[in-house]
Write a structure and sequence with these properties.
The chain has 16 helices and four strands. With about 425 residues, the protein is mostly helical. The chain has a domain of about 130 residues.
């Protein structure tokens, strides 16, 4: 491959730079390598829609760049913006409150708080670390994907700045632990359950891979982020909170493994990733899916559709991570004779309108929460009908963090056969 110094490109016009950027990526002899994202599909979209991307003819990409443009004025986000200091005395320690815990009306001071499942206490939103991190993890994939498809450096530059502020800058960074996540007033200053707050960290490796060619992302940035994530992984695996979360037994366990495996792969610790996979398979695939494909522990919640769909996204993410370990589980059948596809098929009749949801759901159902699981399953099982249903689902929450899968037509699912692109 021929390499050109980034400084030598400074004199070129933005339009010519975009053409060169897209051409070089579409014709690179070795495609980008991702962990959870579909390298072959991303490359297929770039090759197929090169002209449309250049001319702004793809509504999905136009909406993506419009969203990215708005984000350029947002941030940086930081744990140091909170008004109260954590019990440690270190403002860099992340702090949040369990969302479903409320003052006890029978106690004068309301303590200890009591649980009201599915009902969010507005007080929990006053813990700004969770709000800041939510904004960060919503912004990063938009900016990274906008850069990946357009080559416009402004998106990569802002994405890199946001990453540095949260993970690397000594004055604003978060410490690599969740010791004080999801505290409950009057009960505890932190819980293992709080680890689910960082579930979208699973996508950080691929976000970084999308901006890796930018002049705004340096080797020092890469090394610094990997160092932070190694420290965080050590905490996740060795702390009491981490150990508790791993065996919690419902979506918390799923998302524990769904984030720790991709992060372990990213920092080069394959042996740890393999060990986590071995521990996760029985806890997730054996314990969480019944013979009919239902997820009993999620159906027991007051927002049973939301939790069933959310846990399935976690299971799908777990399976994608295991693909990188050459340990595919798409066809895995548990002791009940059920697997991932059964869990998806259980939810499909409700999403496509054939059946009305029969379980407790205290807020309005958003069937689009099944979209991402359908899109990934369409590729995993080479089943275009899943993509067709995904394309027809309308709603605010598709379950994924990137938009490129929305561009796929059902007829293309079997054309691009391998999820991991080969040179």
């Amino acid at each position: 491959m021929c390499f050109i110094r980034k400084e030598a490109l400074a004199w070129l016009s933005p339009k010519l730079l975009l053409i060169l950027f897209l051409f070089s990526r579409c014709h690179a002899p070795v495609p980008e390598e991702f962990i959870l994202e579909d390298a072959a599909l991303l490359q297929h979209i770039k090759v197929t829609y090169l002209g449309d991307i250049q001319e702004g003819n793809l509504p999905e990409i136009v909406r993506l760049t419009e969203s990215a443009d708005k984000l350029l004025d947002e941030g940086p986000f930081s744990v140091t913006k909170k008004s109260s200091t954590p019990p440690s005395g270190d403002i860099h320690d992340y702090t949040s409150m369990g969302p479903y815990w409320w003052p006890d009306p029978e106690k004068e001071d309301g303590l200890p708080y009591i649980r009201r499942d599915g009902e969010v206490n507005p007080e929990s939103r006053e813990y700004t670390d969770k709000q800041e991190m939510g904004k960060l993890l919503n912004a990063l994939p938009v900016l990274a994907e906008a850069y990946y498809f357009t080559g416009e450096e402004k998106y990569a530059e802002h994405c890199a700045n946001l990453i540095r502020a949260w993970f690397l800058d000594p004055s604003t960074k978060m410490n690599p632990n969740l010791n004080y996540a999801q505290r409950i007033p009057g009960r505890t200053e932190g819980r293992g359950i709080g680890i689910i707050d960082t579930r979208k960290f699973a996508h950080l490796p691929d976000i970084v891979k999308m901006i890796a060619t930018s002049r705004h992302w340096s080797q020092a940035d890469q090394d610094g982020l990997e160092e932070w994530l190694r420290a965080y992984m050590d905490w996740l695996v060795n702390s009491e909170h981490g150990k508790d979360e791993a065996i919690h037994g419902n979506n918390h366990s799923t998302w524990y493994f769904a984030q720790t495996i991709p992060l372990s792969i990213f920092v080069g610790n394959k042996s740890r990733a393999d060990s986590l996979a071995e521990k996760g398979i029985p806890l997730i695939l054996e314990e969480m899916i019944e013979r009919d494909g239902s997820q009993p522990k999620e159906l027991a919640r007051t927002r049973s559709w939301d939790y069933s769909a959310m846990n399935l996204v976690g299971i799908i993410t777990f399976a994608l991570g295991l693909e990188q370990l050459e340990n595919p589980v798409w066809e895995y059948q548990n002791q009940h004779g059920a697997g991932i596809r059964d869990a998806l098929e259980y939810l499909i009749p409700y999403a496509n309108g054939d059946k009305a949801w029969e379980h407790e759901q205290i807020n309005e159902i958003d069937y689009s929460k099944l979209k991402y699981s359908l899109q990934v399953a369409a590729r995993a099982y080479q089943y275009p009908d899943y993509q067709e249903l995904a394309n027809n689902l309308k709603g605010e929450d598709g379950g994924g963090v990137f938009v490129y899968r929305n561009l796929m037509k059902p007829s293309e699912i079997t054309v691009v056969k391998e999820r991991t692109a080969n040179p």
